[in-house]
Structures are given as C-alpha cells and as structure tokens.
Design a protein that fits this description.
6-stranded mixed sheet; alpha+beta; MutS, DNA mismatch repair protein, domain I; Dna Ligase, domain 1; 5-stranded mixed sheet; DNA polymerase, domain 1; 22% strand; 14 strands; binds magnesium ion
Length: 419
C-alpha cells in the first residue's frame, strides 16, 4: 500500500512576477466582519440587538468564542472561560454557536467580495484580504471603491464589517482593528510606519502573550521603539520570529494576497496492493486518512470548508467528488461528510485501485471555531491525541475507527510531504 500527503503551494511563484516598486505601491485591503458570530445570531433574532451576547460552548467549562461589544464592556473577551464570563456578565445572553449558519453567511460575504475584487484571499471565516492594486488607474480611487464595497456588503447581508487599506497585509489588518467597530481606515502610501509608531506592540499580529512579555523585558512597549532598533538585535534575541516582528513593525510585508486557487490544499491517498470492492475496508481507509490529515490541519491551526473524495477504479478511470462543508478541523465532522460521499458515489461496486481525500478552502481560525463546534469531550480528545502525536509521531495513535488497517498485509507508510 502506498500513501502520501501532498501540501501544494504556488506561493513562491508570485514573487517572480512582481517588481519591488509594484510591491511598494500595492493596495491591499483587509476586511473583517465585526463580532461575526454575534452579528449572525442577531440577523436570526433581532431581540439580541444592543444586548450583551456571548457565544460559547454549552458547558460551563467551555470557552468564549465571540462576544458583542456590549459584553466587552463587562470585561468579557474571546478565549475567556465561559464560567468567568458568566461571573463578569450575569445578565449576558449566552448562546451555543451554530457553525452551519456562520459558514453559510461567511460564504455569502465571500461571494460578494469575489464578484467585485480581482484577487481575494479568504483568511478566516470572517476575514478577507483583497489585492486592489491599480484600481486607481482604471475605475475610481481605491478608497472610494473600498468604501462602496463595504456599503454593498452591509446592505446585502445586514452584517457590520470594517476594513483597513494600505500597501500590505500586516498594516491593513492593524488598520482594520483600529477602525473597528463598523469603520474604515486608509493609510496613505509612505505613511505606514508613522501609522504604526504610536501603537502598542501588542497590536502586532504574531505577538502573543509570551512574545509580549519578552519584548516588554527588552523595554519595548510601542512599535516606534522597535522601528528605532537594529534588526540584528531581534535576530540574536528572538531568532527568525524576531526578524519577522521587526519587519512588520517597519511596515515591511511582501506577502501576496493568495486566492483559493493558489492556496495550499492538503491531500492524501492510498493505493492498494490488491484492488478491492470491500466497502468496509474502503471506509476504514477513509477514516484513517481523515485522522492523519485533520491532524495536519489542526497543527497548522486551520479549518477546511471543502472536502474531496477521489476514487480510481481498476481500469484507471478516476472520479472525484467534492462537497462544501461547514468550516471545521474535527475528525468526526469531516469523516461523516467523506463517508457520505463514498456511500453516495461508490455504487458501481467495481474494483478500486486507489482511494484519496483532499481538504481545500483552508482558512485560519481553528481555535475560534473549534471551541463550540464540538462537545468539550471531543475537543479534549483531539487535544490529547494531537499532543501524543506531536511527541511520538503520527503513527503513535489511532482512534478505534482507524484500527484494522493493514489486515490485508498492506504496509502502512508514514505520510510524506510533497511541496
Ligand atoms: Mg471578525
């Protein structure tokens, strides 16, 4: 049995096509829906307007995944325990999240943006990056265009959204955060560093609690301080991450806006030693491959919005079957969808030579989504399994559904990466 995992990307190709000047003069827009999950709940129930709404898992030991601005006034924030949130805001309206509804509304917003913007990257369920470079030359000013797009989204969906516009992704994302809620912020060319300078280093993407403590111990509080320091110091003290932070603080970020078509997808497939029609065996194989790939997905802190099943028959005819799913990184959700695809499409009962699965439409936000997508027990199970896998390697653990592999004398090869 042969198996490999492919993680494909055309990212690097982009750089060969653009000049330094083009990078400097890019117009990159970052759009972020304001307290998105709460906004969707309010669309479905207008009585929630103006109230402190908190989205979290159903149990008291769950975690807050989103909350309204009214709830934030009580000190509630994302990633806080639901128990603490209840103490801080007893009058809060606590709602268990609805991933199907959020995924649906997320896709409506994506469709509106993709129908208007030339290059769109969906970064998470409620965030998009748009490359609208050159817009000024042809249609209207980028700022006016961006403003109109925001108005259109709000009119058509009823969801509040904010954006930032500058010459790169990092600065635009920070500009969005400064514009929130319900606002827009433009950073003129050449003024990027000036905009960042007075802000707290904590506002820089990639600076988590640990890095923040480290930076504070170096006497750094504001981005301005980093701008005045030498990059070499950051490299010595913090390694590559330090260099990245230094660059971002200096408004240097050449990362391209990556549409789905050029984005990473993940896939794995299994070629059988002996062709098979054994449905149970095929199902076990799907389950096993899902475990492997979903682990990779969680390791990258991503979720998938689209799964594909690939079947190659003994006559080498190959068929693929695709299904959009609510954004998730959970084995049991993905597995159910892929098994549905198998049940629905493997009807010929002819010999199968190869079976494969693929996750695409990958976006960030595993932590945000996973908090209520699953029961607490499932989240804990995944965390425990992933820890063991990280420590001892992928083959160290298999859930019961994946057992029974290799019964037919097939060798189980560890997944490899194919760039
Ligand atoms: Mg948001």
């Amino acid at each position: 049995m042969l198996r490999f995992v492919a993680i494909s990307s055309l990212k690097n190709r982009y750089f060969w096509k653009v000049t330094v000047k083009e990078i400097m003069e890019r117009r990159v827009m970052h759009m972020d829906l304001d307290s998105f999950f709460v906004s969707v709940e309010r669309l479905q129930n207008s009585a929630l307007m103006g109230k402190p709404v908190i989205i979290c898992g159903s149990s008291d030991r769950g975690v807050v995944s989103s909350c309204s601005y009214e709830a934030r006034q009580f000190g509630v924030h994302s990633a806080m325990s639901a128990k603490l949130a209840r103490q801080l805001c007893p009058q809060g309206i606590f709602i268990s999240g609805d991933m199907d509804a959020y995924s649906k509304h997320s896709r409506i917003v994506t469709e509106i943006i993709e129908s208007r913007a030339p290059v769109v990257e969906k970064a998470s369920i409620d965030e998009h990056y748009l490359d609208i470079s050159g817009m000024d030359k042809y249609i209207k000013t980028a700022t006016l265009w961006a403003h109109e797009l925001r108005e259109t989204i709000m009119q058509q969906t009823g969801l509040p959204i904010s954006f930032g516009l500058s010459n790169n992704k990092t600065v635009s994302k920070i500009a969005t955060n400064e514009a929130k809620p319900n606002g827009e912020k433009y950073i003129d060319l050449g003024l990027e560093k000036q905009f960042l300078a007075p802000l707290s280093i904590k506002k820089m993407p990639g600076v988590g609690d640990k890095t923040y403590v480290q930076l504070r111990s170096m006497g750094i509080e504001k981005i301005e301080t980093v701008q005045q320091m030498q990059v070499g110091l950051f490299q010595r003290v913090m390694g590559e991450n330090g260099v990245l932070i230094w660059k971002r603080c200096n408004a240097i970020d050449n990362n391209p806006v990556e549409p789905y078509s050029e984005q990473k997808s993940m896939s794995t497939e299994t070629t059988f030693d002996k062709d098979t029609t054994d449905v149970q065996h095929l199902k076990r194989m799907v389950v096993s491959m899902v475990h492997e790939l979903a682990f990779q997905l969680r390791k990258q802190e991503k979720v998938t919005g689209c799964v594909t099943l690939k079947l190659r028959y003994s006559d080498f005819q190959t068929h693929t079957f695709q299904m959009k799913i609510p954004y998730t990184a959970s084995d049991h959700v993905i597995q159910k969808k892929l098994l549905e695809l198998l049940d629905k499409n493997y009807t010929r009962r002819v010999l199968i030579r190869l079976i494969g699965i693929k996750f695409s439409h990958l976006v960030n936000g595993f932590n945000q989504i996973n908090l209520f997508d699953d029961t607490e027990e499932m989240v804990k199970l995944y965390q425990a399994m992933d820890k063991i896998r990280l420590k001892f390697g992928d083959s160290a653990i298999k859930k019961a559904g994946g057992l029974g592999m290799g019964r037919r004398g097939e060798g189980h090869l560890p997944p490899g990466k194919d760039a």
